[in-house]
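quick one, three chains, predict together pls
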Amino acid sequence: MTHSGRSNPSSPIRSRLTRRQLVQRAAVGAGALAVGTLRVPRAAQAANEINFWASGTLDIGDDGWKIFANESDVKVDFTDNGNDPGPVVARLAAGNASDIYDVGGLDGGSERELAKRGLIAPWDLTQIPNYASVWEWAKNIPYSTFEGRVYGIPSVINADSMIALRNRVGLVDSYGVIFDRTLRGKTAMEDAWINSVIFTAIYLKNSENAKISEPGDLTADELGLVMEFLIKHKKDGQFRTFWNGWEQGLQLVANQEVWVMTGWEPIVYAARRRGLDCYYAVPKEGYEAWCNNSILLKGAVDRKRSKTAHQLANAFLSGFYGCKLGALRGYAVPTDNNVAYATAHARAFDPAAVKELSEHVKAKFAGKVYWQNTRPANFQLYEEWWQRLRNA
Amino acid sequence: MTLHPIVGDRTNGGRPLFSIITALCLMIMYAPALYLLLASLNPDEQLGLVAPTRYSLNWYVALLDDHRLFRALEESTVVALATAAVATPIGLAAALAYRAMTRMRSIFLLVILSTMLVPGTIEGLGLSVILRLVGLSPSWVTVALGHLLWTLPFAIVVSLIGLSAVRPSTVAAARDLGAGPTRAFVDVTLPLIRGNLVSSFVFAFLLSLNEYARAYYLVGRQNTLPLYMFGAMNSGASPTIYAFSGAVLLVSFAAVALIFVIAARRQSGPPGVSLGAYPTHV
Amino acid sequence: MPDKVAGRRRRAAFFLALPSLVVFISIGFVPLALVAIWSFWSFDPETYWIKPVWSLASYTALLKNGRAAVLLQTAGLAALTATVSTLLAVPAATVIGLLSGPRRATLLVALFTIPFFTSGLVRAFAWRLVLGREGVINNVLISLGVVHTPVEWLLFSDFAVVLGMVAAHLPLAIVPIVLAFARIEGSVIRASQDLGAGFWTMFSSIVLPLIMPGVVAGFLFVFVVAIGTSMEIQLLGGAGASSIAIMINDVMRVVNFPLAFAIATVVAILLIVVIIVADRALELSRLFEDRGA
């Protein structure tokens, strides 16, 4: 094969260059392996280190965890678990999550099945003295306990409704605005039946007098009713899109791609910081309540980290974590220790703001709330209907 | 292989159209990337374009402090380098084997292609179960194994294309001159497919760098870059991730420019020295 | 060929193939076999895991709720993406491999590869800001007076999904074709020109057949990556847009693992059948042979 301007392919210079390149490549590969080997995690970790595998919403950043370690003596190695209960549970159930992580943090609801299979261990409340300070109704969430033992310590708790742009839709107080024909193509909901079905059910029950007893646990007929409603609106082009995750939701609102959507409260705070005139609606039909739990993975017990894990759980509730999370995102950890901490450390956190956040969340829960439920009785039917919605 | 000097004259028929399409391709590919670059110069938290008078590098400065991102980048780079380093030679060997086969060829091709067709999530989950059974703890090694499976078929096909460009008469000539099969391969074939091997390496590297479905189930305590990005997008990202994309672009452009400058200087040097162009100069 | 040489060749082929076979069998087929077996087990409502009770329930469930439609739609979208990418890639690769000097060729290939070093997720997300109601394109169109209200279908539509997917996968199509240009001899082109062939004749009768392995490889690469991805569909598609990967995630969220495994098994088998058929029809295995002395 001839090449313009190239020397004879079998000349010695060519061969040496070629071999040198091969050797270089091999060296690069070997070097990478060597470097990597140095970084293989040591089997034995420091006794007070905990690997926390949780939703990004539970993260307080490297600086936050440093202060946390100073105060509580627990060094947290945070890994984001992607916030999707599906792969998280799959990795716990079948995969290797328990081998490398100690404590998990995710949307509550899966505790029962994980506990039944022994994939998570019950928390020993005697080792978590701060548990007593948790708000009463947060302790009584049905899915956090199983067979009388506590498997989920509530880390973040909130009641969701809608984010609305004041200059576009004015002041709204009903979920009906999401389904309003005049706002066709200007609304959105979350791409998950866990939230969107319950919001729709809450609306239909309270404002359209549909025969729904428990919006969080629909019977097959009730589910059909709610889903047909959603499918009809989807086909009519009511929704601009469904969103998935913080940045997507925030971008929809901040770019005025949608004018009102069901979603998470921190999106409002973040949007306001960016200069947007939006607010969190107070719907007359009520809020959707949810909670992120911390769970103790079996691997931690096997690796004799249970004691440190309990220290971690206790530290979550001791005040700093709640203040920091509230300041970063506007989420509340359900304990009054936050206010106490802020008062004692008024230079780091504004006690008035912390108190306001706590009172705000408590006020929401004092009103009408319906609990989100990852595992309603017919949960697999929910997914089948959602698939039909996707195809519509 | 550049045929430019030959095709010079009577090519007016297709050149304008093809050039337009090439420009279109570049525009499509760079629209989001350039947007990110420009938007990352916006000092506000809100992602968007601003007037050039307000451009600021503060997100790039913040990026330097983003240790989490750099740890994820490091993990991804190690995995990608290891994957590419192993996939390239194995891919070449498999391509050589394929060409030496006769009847088994179809079956071998099927074996190669079939593992590409399994959804990544399930493959990752299944592999994590198996690796757990053999006692391999999740780390960058397990991710690299998963990515090796993912990138190997690509490396094999790329090597096959490269090998099919080698004229059999060239190799035959070497054999006639007394070279054994190994010597003929190392001294004749290998130099001819050198650019192709570099392509294979880069291909495997980039595929691994961008893969997250399999990585999710195989990763150790340190997330890879795509997993980090996914987590950041899900739970609130600082604009540093956009500055990161911008930085990658700028660094890459600078690297390419540097290579060109060096090559231009070297062109006055000894002939036969490669310009380092990886795909066309075989 | 004398038996001794043929035997040596077979042995050489075996040893050369061995590493890849080890990889494919141990890392590829063993997990898949496990997944396939598990797909025939049943969901256990007691433990929310699987129990070794053989049943075809997961496969029959595939025929309901429009799941089969999702498989076909995703495959169709992947094929469309691969087709569009290949149609764009052939001219681009020709410019690189035939119509450019070495420096411009290198530059172009580098340009096409560089975006791949940035995060695909962030790039797909950026399309929302380019195509949205207040995005770059709409702003330009409105300021030029071409339209008075934002064009809605630019985003959250099939158009946006295909555009995003092509933009993300174009290099996968371009690079193999560029590599295939190595198969073309300068002398053949010269000869055709001496015989009076114009550009299109030369292109269709000489270039295209010789770069065909690259074209097929490019199509295959884009198709395989596109059928498994969910980013562009989820970020740029309309409300609740679905794909195979999204459906598997949905199903795993309700711990219906046998169904998730069944979906994966069916996808793999269907695509293998497609490849077998394509191999017979297009003689794929002959595609990568030498182009002659």
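The radius of gyration of chain A is 25 Å.
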